[in-house]
Specification:
By secondary structure, the protein is mostly helical. The protein folds into 2 domains: 27-212, Growth Hormone, Chain: A; 314-506, MFS general substrate transporter like domains (Growth Hormone, Chain: A, Up-down Bundle), CATH 1.20.1250.20. 81% of the residues lie in helices and 0% in strands. The chain is built from 22 helices and no strands. The protein has helices spanning 5-8, 15-20, 34-53, 55-66, 70-86, 88-98, 100-118, 124-153, 158-187, 189-200, 202-208, 215-228, 237-276, 280-311, 320-349, 353-358, 361-380, 387-404, 411-424, 431-439, 444-473, 477-514. The longest helix is centred in the middle third of the chain and has 40 residues, at 237-276. The radius of gyration is 25 Å and the shape is globular.
Length: 515
Amino acid sequence: MYASREDIGYDFGDDSKAGSKPIKPNANIDGGWAWMIVLSSFFVHILIMGSQMALGILNMEWLEEFNQSRGLTAWVSSLSMGITLIVGPFIGLFISMCGCRKTAIIGGILNALGWILSAYASNVHYLFLTFGVTAGIGSGMVYLPAVVMVGQYFQKRRALAQGLSTTGTGFGAFLMTALLKYLCTEFGWRNAMFIQGAISLNLCVCGALMRPLSPKSVCEKYAARSNGEDNQAKALSHSAETIKSNRVLSEEPEKKEESTNEEVLDSVQHTEIGGRSRSGRNMYGLRILKTVSQLTVTVKKGFALWYSSYFGAASLFTNRVFVAFVIWALFAYSSFVIPFIHLPEIVKQYNLSSQDNIFPLTSIIAIVHIFGKVILGIISDLPCISTWNVFLMANFTLVTCILTLPLMRTYISLAVVCALIGFSSGYFSLMPVVTEDLVGTKYLANAYGIIICANGISALLGPPFAGWIYDITQKYDFSFYVSGLLYMVGILFLLIQPCILKRQPKEKSTEEAQV
């Protein structure tokens, strides 16, 4: 139902040559160190996404501490969530140049710094900078590499692997909600944020576990997957030919630039050999020159890959199904975030605090969310099941729950709806799989960066919008209705665009026959 990466026109260089030779599978693909990558990504989701899902606890503390409006205070949480995702395209540039491991380690340090500095906040605007921006950028620098690395290490069990790793969000929301409640009660919210900052330094350990695959292993993965997908239908074959022809033209100057860079490095190496016979100082200077040259080549190649993905002939935006996917992401994420931020306030308004203290509604969403991701991932990996159809069904279930949530007034009814929200939102584990099917593993970092950037805009605007509507109407009902309707618009884009793309080749062939 959706276009694969062949439909966009991306090629992987020597895939045809690699497919003609006997391929020795790498032990780390679908096994071995791949499961350590899943474990690393699992803890990243606990420490980043899980803690963000528990920000409703801190949001109540900030309301009492600073006496600001709900709309303004909600910006702190939404900034952190939104910036984590919005920086995705720029983090893709870092990954292209530095790799996932270095990017994640730097991000872990930034995230911890943001939490620690926020403990000294004197007003809400201070939190905008420290928690919203600093911790948000750090989170984004760890989150995207965690998702990309799982996609690189898995071929056959991608949906299951992504499902297992992203269950960390559910575990994290449950654990961090209980942890932050305890820390705020025992030590106050400032010390709670300081302790959370120390815990967040474990993100650096998770980043260190992200060992990159060798280029040979990546090529073998591309070749094996392309051989397994030769019989798939190509919905965009007429547009793919144009893009491929453009890409061939754009590859020529890239090859010339690479050959020029190689010549520079060779000349530096020859000069270095001659320098050994002259003096040690000259040799030391030439080594520095060689290092700078190699770094320059790496930066140029990384930037060229990043730039071509967004603005080149093989731009991701030439795939209209991918564009529809981006539009959907602009509306979807806020519908999931709003309940986490505002449910504690809703429970207090309905006088259900005593029951919610025993078993919080946000914890119900988090626990069922874990099972939803695993179960949906297992179902999507079945050969007779379409990942796209599972993805759409989960979206329809979630939007229905968002629209019916304001109608519930008892704890039991709210718990049932929250459980359905948790299960259906398990489709988040399928987003990297759907994205990879659209653009391929080579462009996964940049493509998924765009998707989570759109999610970030949704998360950035959703909670403050809900708080602003409450300040006007003194009810949260309209917040859920409006976000649900916007979410439905995004789902309609996903339904309409693939149908249009399927009709176009048929219409074109009919016109050619008439001519």
